[in-house]
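Researcher: We're reviewing a set of sequences before deciding which ones to prioritize for further study. For each one, I'd like a predicted 3D structure that I can look through quickly. This is 2OG-Fe(II) oxygenase. If possible, include the structure in token form so it fits the rest of the review sheet.
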Amino acid sequence: MAPSCIFQIEDISHLREQTGAIRETVQANGFALIRGIFDRSRIRAFLPTILQYISQTEALPSSGVSAEQIRRNCLKWSIGSQSQSQSGIARLMMTIMNPTREPDVLGLRDTFTSLILVRDTLAQREQPLLDDYLPAPKFNGTRLQIYPAGGGFMTRHIDSRAIDNVRDVSAQYIQLVLLMTEKGTDYTSGGAFVEVAGEFRDSEANARSGDIVVYDANTMHGVADIDSHKPLDTSGAGARIVALATVYD
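Model: Here's the predicted structure for 2OG-Fe(II) oxygenase, in token form for your review sheet.
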């Protein structure tokens, strides 16, 4: 990762000042990395709770899950390429849905709210798109995505469905990925990448827990196989875990 892709940001006011430079970097490089909004140690302190939730919760299957179930706290598998959110993207991962109007079972409510504020600051929205300001049936799909050790992955794609979900409420699309785990500490190979002009770039090289990867509507991105040299581990141990806040319809 080029040093110019990393932005040390102190707070939302500083983020507003750097928004133009961050967005220009995303357009040129496929992504940017924001460091400083979230504390590494505090983010890593959530990991035991996440692993406990996985161990104690029955996972829903990849298909046949209703929209109402997704609006509630749940653990769901996503295996194959027939996702209800965006068909054709092959993946192997688990998702913990934790919408902001549901019980705060992971203790991440404030983290998700901050992630929404960062997202909407970068999108230069006058009003943050918190759930109370989204027209029904839209809501913020605040969630964790868990790419298990032993081959968790997602093929390259652009967020076409998520882009469509905000067209009627905002002219801008920004996607943030908050890194709960980190490459080199929790897993050794694979992780997020972007493709720019046929070149694949590792967007997590030198990244830390608490860093935010920033994409836009043109970013072709995916997740390379996580520690595929190991047996598949569905416990969440050794997984790549990220937090997202995407407007769902």
